Each structure stands twice: as structure tokens, then as C-alpha cells.
Amino acid sequence: MSLARLATGSLVCLSCTACAGWQSALEAHGTPATGLLHLTWLLFVVGALVWICVMAILVLALRSRAAISTQATATPDTRVERRLNRAVTGAVIATALIVMGLTITSFWVARVLSPESSSPLRIRVRGYQWWWQVTYLDARPDRTFITANEIHVPSGRPIVVELSAADVIHSFWVPNLAGKQDLIPGRDNTLQFTAREPGTYRGQCAEFCGLQHAHMAFLVIVDPPEQFEHWREAQLAPGASPGGTQEQQGQRVFQSKACAACHTVQGTSAAATVGPDLTHVGSRRYIAAGLLETTRGSLAAWIADPQTLKPGTNMPMVPLNAEELNAVSAYLVSLK
Questions:
Q1: Which fold has domain 245-333?
Q2: How does pLDDT run across 320-334, given as a tens digit for each residue?
């Protein structure tokens, strides 16, 4: 195999590596994402056809046998002039029609991105450096609850996400489900989508927001409606009571140390709102906005030295001895 063929094959394989997966705009599973995908393919196809036509005309012109005299006394060929005029006129008309068609299509897709919907699930997402606070809104205040970095939604139901930022500009992007929408301090934005089928999709902050911008991810977990209602009822419950001796010790340490000055655990004296709500942190798949899987070991490592794992994060190092660290990590992982 020649080097040129090997290089071409490698480039084709590399170009296909991001065409699917849980964070790909080319694998749409939501209504806005589907419209954006169709628009993307339309722009790609039209652009490719225009490029092919231009290249074909250029090749024909270069290979033309008709000699064009550059002498000042040469008499122009009126037939050639008429053909050139018709070609230029046709190209101008075609360009205008293409631009008009693409403009109308883009306006139509923009309207699809914010459809009218009845009985949507309303979620408020607030961006921080560098994590996401997620509030599930309800007409009854006692059924409103807060979580972090992980969003559960029911399939087939319209979702309205109210977006705001606490510090700098962030951008909410779940490419499988919807387009990007900025979170701007002092201004509220909204984003709507409907997930067609259950699945897990990765979201990411798409606006550079500081040192740990790349480590500001979140998950959108689309559940069947019945499973979502079960999850919501579990989230409305207070934090699990510690079962073992070590978990009980961990709860005491958590409430007596600086942990309770930043975090909330419903059902305990910890009720601060500086950091993420930890009432059900053990049920989440990741901690630190997608940085680490939720295991007892990763929780212990994060508590022991968050600045090494995520430099610049606003979580301070809490001085704990080995026994206290083991107890707190056991307690947190038990909060399902």
C-alpha cells in the first residue's frame, strides 16, 4: 500500500470518529437537534454541489481549445460574448436563489428551536465556575428540589431549561438533544427540547469560562416517564440516614467541619448553598462536573485535595485526618 493511500485512509477514519456517540451533533435524539442536523446536511450538500460546479467550470475553461487573443486589434467574438453573458446572468440568478432558499430554511429551523408546548417540565440551570446547579421547578414549593451536574428528564415530554450564570459567561450544550445557548450574568435565557427516547447524553460548557472550562461537563439522562417519576420522588426525599458506625461518624464530621458551611444535605443541619447540593450525591454517576466517577475512592481523593485534581476550583482543602476522611467518604457515597 502506498503512503498516499495509507494517509487518505487514515484521514477518512479520523473524520468519522466523532460522527456518533453520547456527545455528537450528528446523532440527534431530540427535536431541536434533529432540525439542526437537517440544516447542517442541507448546507453541506448545497455547498458541495456549488463547489463541484465551480471546479467543473474552471476545468472546462482551462481545457478550452478556443484561443483568446490579447492583441488590442483583435475583434471580439460576439457569440462568445453572448455565451459568457448568459453564463454570468445564470450564475447570479442561481446564487440569489440559493442564498434566499438557505435563508428561508434557516429562519424556519430557528422557529422549530423554540416551539410552543403544553405542560412542559421546567428546569432551572445555573452555571458556576465550574459546575452546574440544577433546580426542578414545580407549582408546589415542597416539590421543588435541587441537584447538580446531572439532569434527568422524561422521554417524550417537552423540557424548558431556564439558563442563568452566577459569575462569567457559560454555554449549555447537549449536541444530541439541542443546540447551544449561552448563560449570561444578569440575563436569563431559555432552551427547549424534547428527547425522543431513553438514553444518556453528555453535555459540555461550550464557552471558555476559565481555567477548568474543559472540566465543566454534565449528563442528561432521559428516562421512561414512569422511571423519571420514581427518580423524582427519590430526589424529594431527605438524605439517607447513616446505617453503619462509620457512616454515622462521617455525618458528624461532615456537619462539624467546613463541609456544612458550603453544602446542603436535606434532613440534616447542613443547609449552605455555596457548593453543590449533596443530598443524593451517591446516586450521581460523576462528581466534580464529570471529572471523576462517583466511587468512595474518588470522593476521598476529591475531599483530600481538590486543587490537585481540578486546579483553580473554588472548593477549599478541608483538613481531615485519615479516619475522618474515610468516614466522610463512606457517608457521602451512602447518600443515594
A1: Immunoglobulin-like (2.60.40)
A2: 999 999 999 999 999
